[in-house]
TrEMBL record:
Name of the protein in question: Cytochrome c class I
Species whose genome carries this gene: Capnocytophaga canimorsus (strain 5)
Coiled coil location: none
Assigned keywords, A-Z: Heme, Iron, Metal-binding
Gene Ontology molecular function: any one: metal ion binding
Family annotation (InterPro entries): Cyt_c-like_dom (IPR009056), Cyt_c-like_dom_sf (IPR036909)
Cytochrome c domain: residues covered: 46-135
Matching Pfam families: Cytochrom_C
Gene3D superfamilies membership: Cytochrome c-like domain
Top-level lineage group: Bacteria
Length: 135
């Protein structure tokens, strides 16, 4: 009985740590020009189309939507990272990789392959973000 109780407590502690990690990842806004992003509850379909086109032309060399590739898959990324973090990573990858703990962890996980700066505008990055919200 004592073993079962200790096992249950251990599982609860591990579960709590994972939730804390997820929460802190969503609180991290990254480093760059984006300090706050206002996200409407509804998806902007026009913005999604623009973002999908930009994503296909600029990002698919390294990122797939449904599986890891050269870089991480994008499916459900908006559940793991804050909108500000995503946009700052798109707009400011060099500094993010130097100073942001999550970006540095991803760099290690993906064999030191750095994300290229595509020199997108904030509007283009916002369109990509809207597209990523649909994945």
């Amino acid at each position: 009985m004592k073993t079962v109780i200790l096992f249950v407590i251990g599982i609860l502690l591990i579960s709590g740590c994972k939730n804390t990690q997820k929460s802190s990842n969503l609180d991290n806004k990254g480093i760059g020009p984006i300090k706050e992003v206002i996200i409407a509850e509804r998806i902007d379909k026009t913005l999604v189309k623009q973002g999908e086109a930009i994503f296909k032309s600029k990002c698919t060399t390294c990122h797939h939507t449904d599986k890891d590739f050269v870089g991480p898959k994008m499916a459900q990324i908006t559940e793991k990272r804050s909108p500000e973090w995503i946009m700052n990573m798109i707009l400011n990858p060099e500094e993010m990789l130097q100073k942001d703990a999550i970006a540095q962890e991803l760099l290690r996980d993906y064999n030191g392959v750095t994300m290229s700066n595509q020199h997108l505008t904030q509007e283009e990055a916002r369109a990509i973000l809207e597209f990523l919200r649909t994945l």
